[in-house]
C-alpha cells in the first residue's frame, strides 16, 4: 500500500467547542471541515472576465487514447503510491494482459462522450496533522487518495494538455513549477541575476514573496474552464474536463471508520492531472517556483 501517512487523533473539538472522543464523530467533524473549505460560496463568474486574456490560435478539441499507450502507462505505475480502496497499482500491473484492451475501450468512450465515471469522482481523505493545537480540526491537512483506475485517463489527459501547451508556447517563461527540465534552481538563478544586475545599475529593488493559503482548495472551476478555453482547449476535450470537475465528493477515513460523502464544488485534487491547471492560473503573477502556492514577484 506504499507509504503510511496516518495521524492518530485521540480527541477533537466539535463545532460547539466540545471535546469528542468517538471516532465516528471525529471523522464526521473533519470531513465537514474539509468539504466546507472546498465549497464555493461566491457569485457566478461572469465569462467576460476572460476577455482581457490572449486567445490561442492552436486548438485541442479531443483527447486520444491507444492501446500501446495505456499498456505503457500501466507498466509505469508506481507500486509505492497509495490508492483509494479497493484496487491498487499492484493489482493493475498484475492484470495488464487481461484489462488493457477493455480499459482502453472504456477510456475511449469516456473521451468521446466527454464523461468521467461518477463512481470515480469520490476522494478518500486521510487527515494529516500539520501543526498547532491537535484539538482543532483546522490544523489537519486532507491527503486525498485517488482511485487507481482514474489515474489512467488523468495521465493521458495530462500528457496531451502539456504537449499542447509546450508546443504552442502557452506557458509563461517565468514559470518554474511542473515544467520539464525546469525547477527552483533556475528560478533562483533568474532572481539572483536580475537583482545583481539592478544593483550594479544603482537601482532600487522591491520584492514580494507571496504564499497562497489553501491554494489547491480555492481554485474556482468556472475560472479554470475559461482559462483553458483561452488556451485553446475546446470541444470534447473541454467538456471532458468540465465533467471531471463536476459532482465531486469526499469521505474522510480514521481508525477504520469512514464518514458520509460530502460534495466539493471548488479546488483541485492534489496528485491529479489538475495540478497543471493550478499553475496556469498563477502564471501572470511573477516567478513561480516548484510549489504552486509560492510566488516571487520583483
Are there runs of 5+ residues with pLDDT below 50, and where?
284-292
**Number of beta strands:** 10
Question: Strand share of the residues?
Answer: 5-15%
Helix content class? 25-40%
InterPro entries: DNA/RNA_pol_sf, RT_dom
Domain Reverse transcriptase: 109-298
Organism: Didymodactylos carnosus
Protein name: Reverse transcriptase domain-containing protein
What does this protein structure show overall?
37% of the residues lie in helices and 13% in strands. The protein is of the alpha+beta class and 298 residues long. The protein has one domain (12-281). Helix 2 (67-75) packs across helix 4 (96-113) and helix 7 packs antiparallel against helix 8 (235-245). The chain is globular. Mean pLDDT is 85; it is low at 284-292.
Helices and strands, with pairings:
Elements: E1 12-13, E2 19-20, H1 23-37, H2 67-75, H3 89-94, H4 96-113, E3 122-129, E4 140-145, H5 151-167, H6 184-200, E5 208-211, H7 221-230, H8 235-245, E6 248-254, E7 257-258, E8 262-264, H9 275-282, E9 287-288, E10 294-297
Parallel strand pairs: 3-6
Antiparallel strand pairs: 1-2, 3-4, 5-10, 6-7, 6-8, 9-10
Helix pairs in contact: 2-4, 7-8
Amino acid at each position: 500500500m506504499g507509504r503510511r501517512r496516518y495521524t492518530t487523533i485521540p480527541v477533537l473539538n466539535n463545532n460547539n467547542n466540545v471535546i469528542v472522543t468517538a471516532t465516528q464523530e471525529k471523522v464526521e467533524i473533519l470531513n465537514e471541515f474539509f468539504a466546507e473549505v472546498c465549497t464555493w460560496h461566491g457569485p457566478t463568474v461572469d465569462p467576460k472576465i476572460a476577455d482581457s486574456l490572449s486567445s490561442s490560435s492552436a486548438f485541442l478539441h479531443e483527447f486520444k487514447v491507444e492501446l500501446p499507450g495505456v499498456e505503457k502507462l500501466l507498466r509505469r505505475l508506481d507500486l509505492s503510491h497509495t490508492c483509494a480502496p479497493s484496487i491498487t497499482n499492484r493489482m493493475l500491473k498484475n492484470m495488464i494482459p487481461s484489462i488493457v484492451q477493455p480499459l482502453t475501450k472504456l477510456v475511449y468512450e469516456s473521451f468521446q462522450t466527454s464523461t468521467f465515471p461518477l463512481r470515480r469522482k469520490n476522494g478518500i481523505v486521510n487527515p494529516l496533522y500539520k501543526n498547532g493545537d491537535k484539538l482543532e480540526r483546522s490544523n489537519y491537512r486532507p491527503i486525498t487518495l485517488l482511485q487507481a483506475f482514474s489515474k489512467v485517463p488523468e495521465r493521458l489527459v495530462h500528457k496531451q494538455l502539456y504537449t499542447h501547451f509546450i508546443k504552442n508556447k502557452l506557458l509563461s517563461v517565468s514559470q518554474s513549477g511542473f515544467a520539464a527540465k525546469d525547477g527552483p534552481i533556475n528560478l533562483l538563478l533568474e532572481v539572483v541575476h536580475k537583482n545583481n544586475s539592478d544593483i550594479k545599475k544603482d537601482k532600487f529593488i522591491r520584492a514580494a514573496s507571496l504564499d497562497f493559503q489553501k491554494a489547491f482548495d480555492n481554485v474556482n472551476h468556472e475560472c479554470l474552464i475559461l482559462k483553458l478555453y483561452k488556451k485553446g482547449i475546446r470541444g470534447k476535450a473541454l467538456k471532458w474536463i468540465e465533467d471531471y470537475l463536476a459532482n465531486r465528493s469526499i469521505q474522510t477515513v480514521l481508525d477504520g471508520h469512514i464518514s458520509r460523502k460530502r460534495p466539493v464544488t471548488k479546488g483541485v485534487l492534489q496528485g491529479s492531472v489538475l495540478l497543471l491547471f493550478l499553475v496556469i492560473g498563477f502564471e501572470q503573477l511573477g516567478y513561480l517556483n516548484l510549489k504552486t502556492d509560492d510566488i516571487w514577484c520583483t
